[in-house]
Amino acid sequence: MNIFILDEQREYREGMKRILSLHLTDLDITICDESWIEEQPSKFDESIVIIDVFSYPDNKGLKLLEKVISLGAKVIVLSMVKDNEQTLDILSRKVKGFVLKSSSGQILVNAVLNVIENRIYLDNKLSCTVLEGYQKMLQMVKSLVFTSELVIPTRPKGLLTKREWEVLELSARGLSNSEIAQTLYITDATASTHIKNVVKKLEVNTTIAAVLLALKNNWIVFEKTEKVSQIS
Fold first, then answer.
1. CATH topology for 148-231?
2. Residue 212: HSE in the Cβ half-sphere, 13 Å Cα cutoff
3. β-strand 2-6 against 48-51: which pairing, if any?
4. In sequence order, what are the beta bridge partners of 226?
5. For residues 144 and 216, is the Cβ–Cβ distance under 8 A?
6. Which of 89, 102, 158, 216 could cysteine-pair with 208, CB 3.0–4.6 Å?
7. 110: enclosing H helix or E strand
8. Is 41 exposed, middle or buried (0-12, 13-18, 19+ CB in 10 A)?
9. pLDDT band for position 222 (50/70/90)?
């Protein structure tokens, strides 16, 4: 099996390769850049990709993540950040592992070994973060969406386009960008662009933050048959 390392920080990716090569001697470990994804896409099918999406500027890392997953790669995400919303947002993208950069090299090795066995691996340091974020989301959904038999969403006029509201609602239902694209008969790239525009217009940092904001303000509900009213 091939392992590809994607990280903007040269010293870190080289150190990562040394650690993995020492413990996983039977695997082919390669440092690559984003050009490989376009030039040699077949190499990523059934491979393991280790990537720090937050080491890239803007949303470039998230786009690379979506791309390698669409190519059939099993992805382990690295991060310096331990944030509820960002962690849940990454996990919602069907990654196979999530490891903090501050953890030991053995933790990364364990993540790779688990992913090879088709198991999902979550750094123990992130367990509380995930649980807290999940509980927060459940509480918000229960209190804001299911408090009455009839909930009619009210959406600020001009805040988002009709398509962007559709994409946001589907994100709230747990659909990935690829699944949203299939549902709305659009390309994955178009779905990703809509998500990026929603996040920017709502002035938040992640898709999950956008969903939570929409739930909090009663902009979306889960019943498709309910009428949507617009407010000026």
1. Arc Repressor Mutant, subunit A (1.10.10)
2. 20
3. parallel
4. none
5. yes
6. 89
7. helix 105-116
8. middle
9. low
Identity at 129, one-letter amino acid code? T
Residue ranges per domain, the chain?
2-125, 148-231
Whether residue 30 contacts residue 4, with contact meaning beta carbons closer than 8 Å, is answered with: yes
**CB neighbour class for 88 (10 Å; exposed up to 12, middle 13-18, buried from 19):** buried
Q: pTM here?
A: 0.64
How far, CA to CA in Å, does 137 sit from each of 142, 202, 204? 9, 18, 16
218: left (phi over 0), alpha (psi -120 to 50) or beta: left
The pLDDT tens digits of the residues spanning 5-62 come to 988 888 888 989 999 999 999 999 999 888 888 888 888 898 999 998 888 887 788 8
- At the topology level, CATH places domain 2-125 in Rossmann fold (3.40.50)
pLDDT at 228 > cutoff 50? no
* 73 touches 48 (CB < 8 A): yes
Q: Among candidates 53, 74, 61, which has minimal Cα distance to 2? A: 74
Predicted confidence (pLDDT) at residue 140 exceeds the cutoff of 50: yes
Whole-angstrom Cα distance, residue 201 to residue 189?
A: 18
Predicted pLDDT at 214: 84
pLDDT score, position 223 = 54
Tell me how crowded residue 147 is: count the other CB atoms within 10 A of its CB: 8
